[in-house]
Amino acid sequence: MLNKQQFFLLSGLGAIALVLAITTIVLFNGNRSAQNEFTTRAQYIQQSLQLEPVYQGLIRSLAELSANRNDAQLRDLLAAQGITFTAKQP
Protein backbone atom coordinates (compact mmCIF):
# COMPACT_ATOMS: atom_id res chain seq x y z
CA MET A 1 0.00 0.00 0.00
CA LEU A 2 1.23 3.51 -0.88
CA ASN A 3 1.45 6.31 1.58
CA LYS A 4 0.33 9.84 0.59
CA GLN A 5 3.80 10.98 -0.37
CA GLN A 6 4.38 8.04 -2.70
CA PHE A 7 0.91 8.42 -4.22
CA PHE A 8 1.45 12.11 -5.02
CA LEU A 9 4.96 11.42 -6.36
CA LEU A 10 3.72 8.68 -8.68
CA SER A 11 0.70 10.73 -9.72
CA GLY A 12 2.99 13.67 -10.55
CA LEU A 13 5.32 11.45 -12.56
CA GLY A 14 2.32 10.03 -14.42
CA ALA A 15 1.07 13.53 -15.18
CA ILE A 16 4.52 14.54 -16.45
CA ALA A 17 4.63 11.43 -18.66
CA LEU A 18 1.20 12.30 -20.05
CA VAL A 19 2.24 15.89 -20.81
CA LEU A 20 5.41 14.65 -22.53
CA ALA A 21 3.41 12.17 -24.62
CA ILE A 22 0.99 14.90 -25.71
CA THR A 23 3.92 17.21 -26.52
CA THR A 24 5.51 14.47 -28.63
CA ILE A 25 2.27 13.99 -30.57
CA VAL A 26 1.92 17.72 -31.22
CA LEU A 27 5.56 18.02 -32.37
CA PHE A 28 5.19 14.96 -34.60
CA ASN A 29 2.14 16.47 -36.32
CA GLY A 30 3.96 19.79 -36.74
CA ASN A 31 6.92 18.02 -38.31
CA ARG A 32 4.67 16.12 -40.68
CA SER A 33 3.02 19.37 -41.80
CA ALA A 34 6.40 20.99 -42.37
CA GLN A 35 7.61 17.97 -44.35
CA ASN A 36 4.50 18.06 -46.54
CA GLU A 37 5.02 21.76 -47.25
CA PHE A 38 8.70 21.16 -48.05
CA THR A 39 7.82 18.32 -50.41
CA THR A 40 5.22 20.45 -52.17
CA ARG A 41 7.70 23.29 -52.66
CA ALA A 42 10.43 20.94 -53.88
CA GLN A 43 8.01 19.45 -56.41
CA TYR A 44 7.06 22.94 -57.63
CA ILE A 45 10.72 23.88 -58.07
CA GLN A 46 11.44 20.65 -59.94
CA GLN A 47 8.52 21.22 -62.29
CA SER A 48 9.59 24.83 -62.83
CA LEU A 49 13.07 23.70 -63.82
CA GLN A 50 11.59 21.36 -66.42
CA LEU A 51 9.60 24.23 -67.96
CA GLU A 52 12.46 26.74 -67.95
CA PRO A 53 13.62 26.03 -71.54
CA VAL A 54 10.05 26.52 -72.78
CA TYR A 55 9.77 29.83 -70.93
CA GLN A 56 13.13 31.02 -72.25
CA GLY A 57 12.14 30.24 -75.83
CA LEU A 58 8.80 31.98 -75.39
CA ILE A 59 10.40 35.09 -73.91
CA ARG A 60 13.10 35.16 -76.59
CA SER A 61 10.42 34.92 -79.32
CA LEU A 62 8.34 37.69 -77.76
CA ALA A 63 11.40 39.93 -77.40
CA GLU A 64 12.40 39.34 -81.03
CA LEU A 65 8.85 40.01 -82.20
CA SER A 66 8.72 43.22 -80.18
CA ALA A 67 12.07 44.38 -81.54
CA ASN A 68 11.30 43.48 -85.17
CA ARG A 69 7.90 45.15 -85.20
CA ASN A 70 8.83 47.93 -82.79
CA ASP A 71 5.81 46.95 -80.67
CA ALA A 72 5.69 49.24 -77.65
CA GLN A 73 2.82 47.36 -75.97
CA LEU A 74 4.66 44.05 -76.11
CA ARG A 75 7.87 45.69 -74.88
CA ASP A 76 5.94 47.26 -71.98
CA LEU A 77 4.34 43.90 -71.16
CA LEU A 78 7.77 42.27 -70.98
CA ALA A 79 9.15 45.17 -68.94
CA ALA A 80 6.28 44.83 -66.47
CA GLN A 81 7.48 41.26 -65.85
CA GLY A 82 11.07 42.44 -65.33
CA ILE A 83 12.30 41.41 -68.77
CA THR A 84 14.37 43.96 -70.61
CA PHE A 85 16.22 43.62 -73.90
CA THR A 86 18.08 45.68 -76.44
CA ALA A 87 17.60 45.27 -80.17
CA LYS A 88 20.68 44.95 -82.33
CA GLN A 89 20.74 47.43 -85.15
CA PRO A 90 21.35 45.88 -88.60
Topology:
Blueprint: H1 4-69, H2 72-80
Helix pairs in contact: 1-2
Structural category is mainly alpha
| Quaternary status | single chain
On the 0-100 scale, what is the average pLDDT? 92
- What is the H/E order? HH
Give the helix tally: 2
Q: What helical percentage do the residues reach?
A: over 70%
Measure the end-to-end span: 102 Å
Commentary on this structure:
- The protein is mainly alpha-helical and 90 residues long.
- It has a domain at 19-80.
- The protein has helices at residues 4-69, 72-80.
- Helix 1 (4-69) runs antiparallel to helix 2.
- It is rod-shaped and about 100 Å long.
- The N and C termini lie far apart (102 Å).
- The model has no long low-confidence stretch (mean pLDDT 92).
Short description:
This protein is mainly α and 90 residues long. The protein is built from two helices and no strands.
List keywords for this structure.
single chain, 90 residues, mainly alpha
